[in-house]
Structure formats: structure tokens, C-alpha cells
Amino acid sequence: MTSNLTLELPNFEGPLDLLLHLIKSQKIDIYDIPIAQITSQYLAYLHEMQRLNLTIAGEYFVMSSMLLRIKSQSLLPQNDFVDEDEPEVDPREELVQQLIQYSVFKKVSTYLKKRNDEVPITAAKEESVPLTKQVNPLPPGQITSAELARTLVVVLQRLKIRQPDAVSVGISEASITEMIEFLHEQLARQQKVSFFACTSQIKSLSDIIGLFLALLELCKKQEIRVEQSRTFGDLELERIDSDGK
């Protein structure tokens, strides 16, 4: 049987891989391994690997010792003193279990490697905001509501430095009305006024918030135009006359 065996030496991953290759190539039932035949073929592989000066790990020789032990056990005559009712243990059982477990792990490893090769390394993410819902930016020279909010934060931080104590914030319709009148007075004297200059005349946090809300109200009514030259910079309030200038 061994003389008719065609030896191919692929890169086996261990003694069980070589043994499983022999079983599959000979189309042998893994649960009924002809141990003498497999042992001879296994040893023939080791001899061929030694002839080709291939590096053979010690685990291959451990497997060959195991095969020879199983072969010798199967050749020994049955002990007459053994109770006939006691089930006979097949010396190949341990080897069969190892081969089955190795076969399962090898199939799982092959499946995972195939999945890893099929799955792309990077995945594209859909746009968080659809193009139809994206907001068009304002033309140059006009500021956004976010910039207005950041400027208010700067003013509030400056006020907090001057007045570190906690204060209670109360906003009323009367306060906004008063601040609108205050801005009207400022813009009546000059075409443009500084928001920072206006806040410097105010001492309380609630009044600054009222002034900012008054600024928004006048913008809404298109009575003033607001410009900002840089981020977190001052706001320049410009009066819009009835002719739109």
C-alpha cells in the first residue's frame, strides 16, 4: 500500500493536518481508520521530509509514536483474564476525537478567513445630513445666528469675571422694551454703534440678556443691520433708515 502512495508535500500546519490529509486523500472513514495503513503512510511522509532536508517539528515524531503505540495495541492478543462484560476500548478512540476536533476547527478557520477576505477593510458612511436638508451659508459679510450666540457668550464671560458671584436671571417684556428704547437712543445719535460699547454701560446680567434679545428683535423688524469682522469679535449695529439705507 505504501509503495503505491504518491507523496505530495504541501505546507502542513501540524501532525493532525498531515494525518487528516492522508485520511481524506485515501477516502477513509474517520471512525474506522486502518491504523496499520495510516501509520505506514505517515512514516513514509516523515522519511520523505527527512530526505528533502525539511525541518520537521518534534510534534510530528510524537504523532508517529502515538500511531505506532495504537498499532501495537491493536496487534496484541486479547487478554483472556479481561471480563467479557466489560466494554472493549478501541485504542483509536483518542486519535479519532482529536481528528474530529481538528477538522471542525479547520473548517471554522477556513470560513472566517474567507469572510475576512470578502469583507472590505473600510466601509462608507452615509451622509449625516441629506443634501436636501443642508443649510445654505449666508453671503459674505453677514453673520449667522451661531456667531451671534458665541458673541453673547463672550460678553457673558466678561461680565462673569467682573461679577463672579452667582446671580439670578430674570427676563421680562418690560426689560426688552427698555433695551429696544436704549438701542434706539444710541442709534439716533450715530449710524453705527458697538455692541461691546453698549454692554459696557450695563451692570447686570439680566440687562445684557435683555439687550441681546432687543438686538434680535430689531434685526427681526429689519430696523438694524449687524456685522461681525471676526469670530468672537465685536458686533457692529447699523441703523437701517426707512429708505433701506
Automatic annotation (TrEMBL):
Record InterPro entries: ScpA (IPR003768), ScpA-like_C (IPR023093)
Keyword Cell cycle among record annotations: yes
Principal location listed in the UniProt entry: cytoplasm
Source domain of life: Bacteria
Statement: the UniProt record of this protein carries the keyword Protein biosynthesis: no
Alphabetical keyword list: Cell cycle, Cell division, Chromosome partition, Cytoplasm
Compartment(s): Cytoplasm
Family: Belongs to the ScpA family.
Stored PANTHER family: SEGREGATION AND CONDENSATION PROTEIN A
Subunit organization: Component of a cohesin-like complex composed of ScpA, ScpB and the Smc homodimer, in which ScpA and ScpB bind to the head domain of Smc. The presence of the three proteins is required for the association of the complex with DNA.
Entry-linked HAMAP family: ScpA
Function, as annotated: Participates in chromosomal partition during cell division. May act via the formation of a condensin-like complex containing Smc and ScpB that pull DNA away from mid-cell into both cell halves.
Official protein name in the record: Segregation and condensation protein A
